[in-house]
Amino acid sequence: MNSSTDDPNFTTVHEDxxxxxxxxxxxxxxxxxxxxxxxxxxxxxxxxxxxxxxxxWTSYFDEExxxxxxxxxxxxxxxxxxxxxxxxxxxxxGGYSGLSFALVTSTIKQKARVVxxxxxxxxxxxxxxxxxxxxxxxxxxxxxVLKALYxxxxxxxxxxxxxxxGAVAVNVAAKRALPSLCGxxxxxxxxxxxxxxxxxxxxxxxxxxxxxxxxxxAIEWSIKGGTLRNVDSARVSIPGTxxxxxxxxCYVHRAKLEETDQYWRxxxxxxxxxxxxxxxxxxxxxxxxxxxxxxxxxxQMQGKFQIVVVKNTGHAIQEDVPEExxxxxxxxxxxxxxxxxxxxxxxxRRP
Length: 351
Description:
The protein is of the alpha/beta class. It contains 13 helices and 13 strands. The longest helix is centred in the middle third of the chain and has 17 residues, at 191-207.
């Protein structure tokens, strides 16, 4: 549609604010019911920079912390919320950060404790080797953080993992090294689909925008480019995926994913069978049924796990529809009677 200045048939009506003000005052003094007396003040026009202005994580999480891993120089950053119930331990996808779970935390923390971790090479975590994203290293990182947090007496834990983080969650669960694990939620990652997409990943990474003049521009790009669909979530999470490059005088992606391709296959190989073998209640959240592979289809028919296809969402389900995501997680915890100390068995009182 042409603007008024482009269309010769369109006449622009100019408003003289001083004249309107005088007329309004005159009518008021004369007790005349003027049309101007009922005109509400115009809301301020929201500029692009305001629409994409970052939101601080404190609006959703209660606190943040740095976890120093003993006998190493590795420090992992976490965000925490909630004071009761089991621990919902969240693992983000490649290129994201723990803040990817910010909006869902507002609801989940009413029923459970939430811990969201910045994985190696992501967010505010700092490790000696930022490029080693092998599945073994990532799993050891998660177990080390849980050990540092809870020692030898961890509370009941529900692992939630999105994309790459979903693969890490499955592999951690499959190790059976976490005796207090009571539930596993995997978000939009399936072995068959993931393995088939690896050949395109380098091309996808190289074609994305690499430099941003401001954080607002990065948030805008994530929405307009379709990476995320929820602008409020993007305003919280995107800042955690960036770092400022002083040499280039701009913001760049924090995670160097393009340098980690040697580890990509390790994330997803054998993932379906590992998922099915985990001896805890399991929930698979998908953005589309096309992501199911043969092993999972058979497993689902055998009732080995619960599956929910979440409509009208992209890959980052937890960010695009946070309220629906949080509700599904809370129902999963309730249905499986997962309490702060483990599975609550009716009729048996725990100390």
